[in-house]
Amino acid sequence: MPLRLLITRPEPAATRMAKDLRGMFPGAEVVVSPLMRIACGGTLPALAAHEVLIFTSRHGIEGFCRLSPRRDLPACTVGCATAAEAQRRGFDVRVVAGDAEALLGRIATKGVAGPFLHARGAHVAADLAGALRRAGHAAREAVVYDQQALPLTDAARAMLDGDAPVILPLMSPRSATLFFEAAGTPRAPLLVAAISRNVAARIPEDVARRVAVAASPDIRALHNVLRDLAKDSKRVESHKGAQ
């Protein structure tokens, strides 16, 4: 039986990831079922002359750019992909870190003073603006997009109702929460690749056969976890076939 993977990221990231995984695992069955739809919108406050923008996702960049023509402001970002998108849009990226906690540390180390504006989604895993204020900085936030929940597709439910193991990459705490709210306890043995410990913490106990956390919160480390889980999936299949 072919390897089975379920992608729940929002579009267009879901389709990009599915293409990458089909290349990594030729012959795999890859089902795309986004659990969120990104809807840009919101309002921005008047921007200070030396405002430092904080982007924790490419969606935040897109949302900001739809609301403001300003591209002359420096930025601090979470993730290399977010940094690359910010640079592509014309922002001067001063600090890049793997996650929100590391970003706060690097801002302090590099002496970036702000004032800061976190352009964020309606749902966030960390209160960056609050943490910066507690550290003595002027910091505020603006919601520039929403992550609207979507149901699992029929194809995703059919995969989860089967007997074969399903590998599930999870990229955010909200994705993890939405998935288990929608899926409950799947019949299929579930092998979860969590991009961070914060994501893994949202997975209910005894629902997944295995939860593996990436060594660092980036796509390269997640791919290493997926390769390991692919081997585990074959062992589960072999064990079931031997019964």
From TrEMBL:
Protein keywords: Lyase
Molecular function as annotated in GO: uroporphyrinogen-III synthase activity
Family annotation (SUPFAM superfamilies): HemD-like (SSF69618)
Enzyme class: lyase
Entry EC number(s): 4.2.1.75
Domain Tetrapyrrole biosynthesis uroporphyrinogen III synthase: 27-222
Coiled coil stretches, renumbered: none
Species annotation: Roseovarius ramblicola
InterPro entries in UniProt: 4pyrrol_syn_uPrphyn_synt_sf, 4pyrrol_synth_uPrphyn_synth
Name the UniProt record assigns to this protein: Uroporphyrinogen-III synthase
Superkingdom of origin: Bacteria
Gene3D superfamilies membership: 3.40.50.10090
